[in-house]
Amino acid sequence: MAAGDDHGEEVRNKQVLARDYIHGNPKEEDMYLSTGTIRLKVPEGSNAVLVKNLYLSCDPYMRGSKAEVKDRLFNSFAPHSPIAGYGVAKVMDSGHPDFKKGDLVWGVTKWEEYSLITMTESLFKIQHTDVPLSYYTGFLGMPGMTAYAGFYELCSPKKGEYVFISSAFGAVGQLVGQFAKLMGCYVVGSAGSQEKVDLLKNKFGFDEAFNYKEEDDLDAALKRCFPEGIDIYFENVGGKTLDAVLLNMRLRGRIVVAGMISQYNLDHTEGIRNLLTILYKRVRMEGFTVYDYYHLYPKFLDVVLPYIREKKIVYVEDEAKGLESGPAALVGIFSGRNVGKQVVLVAPE
Q: Which of 22, 87, 231, 319 fits 161 for a cystine, CB–CB 3.0-4.6 Å?
């Protein structure tokens, strides 16, 4: 560690870098550890924010593409650049009027010990610290906002409705299910292991759940769980699941598409055969991105913070310790190795 001067102290900065653009799900060999240096000072005249990263988030969107994709807010993988993703950090220096030294923030950062963040529009100041800071990578961050906006703003839920959630054990799904239960809905989720199915029912309060890997006939599984049909489908998977759900939708049902993880790595995405249901049953189907709803963040906190404090919502995390454990943790979410929201602890506050 070098002595400081007017340009700020220079410190070592451990990083996780991408070897190249990638196609499909990341592998550990797509990433490598390196150590550089960084000055703990924002360049003169810049409105950037310099942060010390505390927690990093592992999320399903952190896949690669063969080259830079223009319609994304950011690309997680770019040649010999730190992996980009959401995280929680502490401000070390700021040229931005909205942030000052010592502030805690969440938003888009880099997989390294210290980051100079120029995309400051993606940063949110953390005002409530009576909940674990790691929650701002999930429940109180992007996945939580996705669940909130998708369910309350787009699903138009009503008490007593029948709700199905695919990939229900993910960071988004587990919250949608609990929001639905708090509203008085009947809730069923699908997941990829018996352990996750048991947790959905016993810990998160779902009325029913099934392991999609053990169901030969998804249509039959849905009819078993929803003899009266489905009012709301919170879509995270796509493909055969969506096709089976379409056959089971009720009149004026709503399908909200937050993701289609089964399709992301296919060169040719699967066709959907049962779309005629949308016409016959007057079903509304809508895709959305969380970026369109961040203006509702204060309203979201007003709803969910009391739920946390009153222990009305359960939230499960899977924490990997140390930046060097990040690559394996990220790779693991694509095979369902994690139990709960996967976070990486970079540094204690």
A: 231
